[in-house]
Amino acid sequence: MATRTATRPGASWRPTRRSGFSAALVALALLAGSCANLTRSGGDTATESTPVDDTTSGDSGDGSGAEPAEDNCPELASMLGDVNAATYAVYGEAIVNPGAGPELVHFQIGSAWAAGRRLLVTNAHITQAFVEFARQGVQLERAIAIQAGTGEVVTLLRELTHPEYDGDPLRSPDVGLFTTQQELPSTLELASPTVEIALGDEIQIVGFPGDVTDFIEIVPGETVPQATSLSGDVTALRTHDDTEAVTADNLDVIQHQAPTTPGTSGSSMVACGKVIGVNNAGTVNLIATPAPDGSLTIDRQAAAANNFGVHVHHIAEMVGLFEDNAVQGNELPLEAEVVVAAPPDMPIDALTLLGTVTGDQYAHAIEIVVADDGTITGASTWGENQYSLSGQIFEDGTLFFIDDAPELSTDLRRGFYEGTVVSDTRIEGVYFEEGQEDVQAPFSADLQ
Q1: 416 with 399: CB under 8 angstroms?
Q2: All domains of the chain, ordered by start, with CATH?
Q3: Which contiguous run of DSSP H or E holds residue 96?
Q4: Which residues pair with 195 in a beta bridge?
Q5: Are 158 and 40 in contact (CB under 8 A)?
Q6: Per residue in 5-52, pLDDT tens?
Q7: How far apart are CA 127 and CA 110, in angstroms?
């Protein structure tokens, strides 16, 4: 069945860098991978990355109750090699132009890392990106992750989002999970939820910055991507509630100076060989470039290295919820929702248009009614037979509607109509049938 999709989603999530008029604005931005939208079942999906046994944890001696940092840490190169092997680039794939010249496109969403044999950890805003794509009417063919150093492609079955995440990356737990169809060969170990983290501590972050993948493209199934390893110091410790003093008991956010850029959302934050957090946000400059028509194009560029990550205790909590079947999430890819909008250059009242599909094979009459929200209803008439039509007109003036022929007879193929608003009184497009996308007939309809 042909599926209408929007233009390549990556374009809106990872714009080309531009020079020009600078708004000199700095704003907090989620570092989603396209610089920009997991089946949990069975025991074999349970994570093998568990927090350090609490019976081995001692008090730091400062009265905070935090676990002291370990003295014996693995050699840095060896540790980064292990982290790289467990790191993945998260991608979506979609078919564009399904009616004529279909093309499979792929676009980066973010980064993730293996915490179990079939479990990846990332950010909630990364898992929710897949949900948002569906809400925007974008039908994905696959949700996938690509392993650093091997190029192995794994299928993401289900997304799960922390139930307390509210869209604010610094005031709610920005943690999400993906379950995978394939077994993951390397996993990372979580530090204890009570691990001691201090100002000035050095951390390592491993992921897929968008400014690198802009220049070195990742092609699923063809290229072998290399994750980027970044280092920086902890610069602040924060809680979700700005009115509270930060203690070991309410530490939620780790601020750091590792030079992350969009794409590193979901990357592991590692100290002494164990995961102490997941990178999730940073500051950006907003660059406004004026166009000849007076409009502005807004681009985001990484600003000073003031970046943030979610503390490991939220990761451990989310993994625990997963193991207890306390979060359900969504199967991937989600089915795209129907997106409707008022048609441009047309009156907002309900409109009736009459037209025909021409050609010997598909000739028939159509009558459609466009509601003020862009919804299309109507009927197609083939001699003595009539079928119901439904669809929508989009904000960009494109339109899409289908008939219900298969519901009336299993011997009939579904009919698809794709077109555009060409004037304030006329629409034009092509008609084709399911499984016969290469055989098309033109149609037009005029306002009555």
Answers
A1: no
A2: 11-331 (2.40.10.120), 351-447 (2.40.128.120)
A3: strand 87-96
A4: 67
A5: yes
A6: 222 222 222 222 222 222 222 233 444 333 332 222 233 333 333 333
A7: 9
